[in-house]
Amino acid sequence: MAAFLGTGRVVLAQIPRVYPPAAPIVRDTLPDQQVFANPSVIGMGPSKGLIVRYERMPRFGVKSEAQVVGISNYAGKIDKNARLSIKGYIPAWNRPHLKVVVGLSYEREEFQFDGPATTDYELYRNIEDKGLKSTAAQVVVLRPIDEVHWYLARVKGELSGDYNSSTELTRSDYFRFSAEAVYGWKRSPQFSWGVGLQYGYTFGRLSVYPAVLYNRTFNERWGIEALFPARVTARYNISESSILYGGYTVDGYNYIIKLRDELARVGPNGAPIADKKPLRTLELRETEVKFRLRWERELLSFLWMGAEAGYRYNYAFDAFDRTNDDREKIIDSKFNGSPYASLELFITPPRKLLEKAGVRR
Fold it and tell me: Where is the DUF6268 domain (predicted)?
């Protein structure tokens, strides 16, 4: 068993899209045959233990406009934008009335700019040379109450920014915290839903957002898996070993950028502003919406492949002041929309092991 619903990176969408086995199942039953509820439904994909994913976008345009005097604008192309993520989930506690999963992850996003960014534009020079990274640990807790009601909670801590080595990391600079809590109802093995709150960076800045979970299987082929507003996905079960998905996701990222050369805050006359410290650190807020098609296929009894393609709309890639206390926007950037593709391999519990335990995928 891995984590419990759909992330990533953190956030509504950052709850990893990995599930406990669909209820009712034998090991979720006490001697008196009491069944405990959970958010999964029959027809969902298999649980994920270890995930390796690579995503790539082709060449697209970028335009950055300075929001303060003394900083230049930028317009050019990005030749490469790629993401590599490695995630692992370990069941720390697995009982009918309490399930706990610990997750560890590492993600890296890389850029290559076609233009003067590496020499003339400080923000993009840092990003191209060092990349954007996130190293995270999280704990997911599922607390079934009875055969209908359940609680789900997740807490996550991560180090997120352009650091290159452990010597650059400090808790105050790079540390990020997020959390989710959902209360839900299991109406049948085919229908589970819940409501809750998420505290994190799904839409770029740290905020509290509402969440509505809706998992439903309509028949042996069709279903829907949603954590609105961050993700809505339709599911089509081609066979026991092949699943097709279609829908959208909203992904948010928040990085700390350490500038090599400080940026002086100047007034309209070109003179430094006395009560503003020079900019040495920027907070980068990235938000994107992806419209996607995804195909998951069993390769071996314990190994699955996920192939995904779609269109990415970038809502924001903005830099904010971290040196002063006002969190003023310094650079407003927009990426052009772009197609993307990704390939993923993930390890699942072997089919024979699940069959012996009385679990149906």
Answer: 140-259
